[in-house]
Amino acid sequence: MTNAALSIAGMECRRTIRAVTGDRTKILVMAAIGVFAFGPLTVVALLLLPELGEEVAAGAVDSEMASMILEIVPGVVAVVWLFAVLMAAIRTVTTAAKIDKPACLLISTRLRNVVVGVVGAEIVLFSLWVVPPAVVLSSAFASGTGTILPVVIAPLVVVLLLVTAVPVGFVIGVCFRHLITVYEPIARYRTPLLALLALAYFGSIATGWFNEITAVLFDLLGDGPLGWPGHLLLVAIPGISPSSTAAIGALVATAVVAPLAIFAGEAVARVHWYADPARTGDETVSDADSSNRLAELLSYGLAQPTRTVAVTAIRRTKRAPIRLAYVAYPLFGTLFFAQEIIQTGTVPTYLAVLLCLYVVWGAGVLFTLNPLGDLGQALSAVLTSTLSGTDAIRGRMIAGSLVGVPVAIIVAIAMGLVSPLSLEATGALVVGSAVGALVTPGLAAGIGSVFPRFGTVKVTNNSEAVMPSKMAFLVYTVAIMLPAGAATVLYTDSAALIAEIATMTATIIPQVEATFEASTVTTLSWTILVIGLIAPPVAYRYAVERFDWYRLE
Known about the structure:
Layout lengths: L2 H19 L2 H34 L5 H34 L5 H7 L2 H35 L3 H33 L2 H4 L2 H18 L1 H13 L6 H7 L9 H30 L8 H17 L5 H16 L15 H10 L4 H19 L11 H5 L5 H30 L4 H28 L6 E4 L2 E3 L4 H23 L2 H14 L9 H32 L4
Antiparallel strand pairs: 1-2
Helix pairs in contact: 1-5, 2-5, 3-6, 3-9, 3-10, 5-6, 5-11, 6-10, 6-11, 8-14, 10-11, 12-13, 13-17, 15-17, 15-18, 15-19, 17-18, 17-21, 18-19, 18-21, 19-21, 20-21
């Protein structure tokens, strides 16, 4: 690696690390995921691996177990390599292939230096995630076996996998990014294509197909070249006799594949980085036509300012749908129920209600949860114009209801058909969803006016948008969930059950003696429901007043 490539790799690593460390929220989320997802597993591994190492060193591995290990480890390593290629390709599409200031970088050094520097930075960044755990776990195992070989070989195998997987992933990622950003027939439909790919990926996980595909790849690739690093890893385990030819082949294959992948990466990067992005000139025309049709539809009964605000809100979202990416986040929770739905052939009642509640929640989130911050740089111009708070807030509310109410009705009817809900319950669900989608934009407008956000946040690695504040999300979600829960308790007449559960829960707490009556739960539910019904018009009036009297500091 030349000095220029080293400089580029160091610069890319510093930029990525600064971007991560500069976002405290991202650090906290990553730390929470690390503690809750990998913390227990790491603790258990550190406790068991030394004992396992002692047993292996004492000769506890018989010939049958050794044969099974020789079959499993190469297959696991092959699947891990494919997963690393996939992650590297995703990183390339979203981040690595989009170099900063390309006009400056590409003319200041050779293209090969840029490719080597970018790929080298990705290898280092991946290593920061996987090499330390490999060292810790292998050290725990080595402490039991009494040999240092696991501490040396396990990180070596991890590095070998990254040195080949990351360049191969870079080639695949650059090719895919070229298709969706440069090749016009595909770039024109980039958003639906990416949505379909994401749906296919998460759908395969939810339906169990991902596990079946992984099992097929495990059986298919374990005995091939992709499984050779597994034999190298088994050299560190006493009592196992891996194939020395496969272990040496892993080293030779790495020395051959990595340079070839870099060479291929240079070729595809030359095509992609020096190409002009795709231009689809018909988007503006179609947007204008659809906006004119919508404005004509809203012209009946709505004032011009209100109509303009509603159309503008919908038009901006259509042009930049990434602004609403956060609305889809709760949908990922439904993936946990997909396999149950497929097996039973019906949607559980509670999930049908939750999906309708999600639509009601989304109707307010779409356009009204940040009415001041969404204006962006135009805020000062709008505040000094003749636009009143009534027109500004009402226009956004109408935009949210135009989208939310039809979707709520369709989803509620669909859930009634595919779930065990009775006809009466389905009718109540349809009416409740439609009314909820109609009034939640007003509630969201008031809460968003109390907790505005004016700065942009990163939605993806390369996309920024003005999103509602975390406090607005939290307060709005609670303001939806509490009345919905109260209505459910009253409709299903489950106050006695809730009181019994609350009483049992209170007995668990030491020195606390409390008994909850069903009448208390009923009264509390009615109180919450009434407050929930009053909240939307009050929030709407507050949002109007806040807009009219807002002053820039």
